[in-house]
Specification:
The protein is extended. The chain has 8 helices and no strands. By secondary structure, the protein is mainly alpha-helical. It comes from Acinetobacter brisouii CIP 110357. This is DUF2059 domain-containing protein. Pfam families: DUF2059.
């Protein structure tokens, strides 16, 4: 009897580890809305765009968000399953999750700055420009 139980447990665990997640349900619009609210995606996205940039586009922050929101939600739905979004929603409701969520916009911006700076410092165009200008770039 015990061997049968162990066999059933092993079969269950094996199924969990080898389950093809491509069959998972896509994230629901409601779950994505909850995640966007928890992470303050609207506020963080609007704060990334400078007023001058919006003015050049002839938009205000609300118009900008209305244009961007469906695209962002589509990205989340395309890349995350319902189970993943539910897990993220649970995590971001915890004190640790709220702390991480508050730090992510700044961390994302700093990451972007490091990547762009690295690309600029390592591009052949910049090295050529530095040479022409007589600047030692190394």
């Amino acid at each position: 009897m015990q061997l049968k139980s162990i066999s059933q447990i092993l079969t269950l665990l094996g199924g969990m580890f080898f389950f093809d997640l491509s069959h998972a349900q896509p994230a629901s619009p409601n779950s994505i809305d909850q995640l966007f609210d928890i992470l303050k995606i609207k506020q963080n996205t609007q704060s990334m765009v400078k007023p001058q940039q919006l003015q050049m586009l002839g938009l205000n922050k609300e118009q900008f968000w209305q244009d961007v929101e469906p695209q962002l939600k589509q990205l989340y739905q395309k890349n995350l399953s319902e189970e993943e979004v539910q897990a993220l929603n649970r995590f971001y409701r915890t004190p640790e999750g709220q702390s991480a969520a508050a730090k992510m916009p700044n961390l994302s911006q700093e990451t972007y700055n490091v990547v762009v700076h690295n690309m600029m410092n390592n591009s052949a165009v910049n090295h050529g420009l530095f040479k022409v200008l007589g600047i030692d770039s190394e």
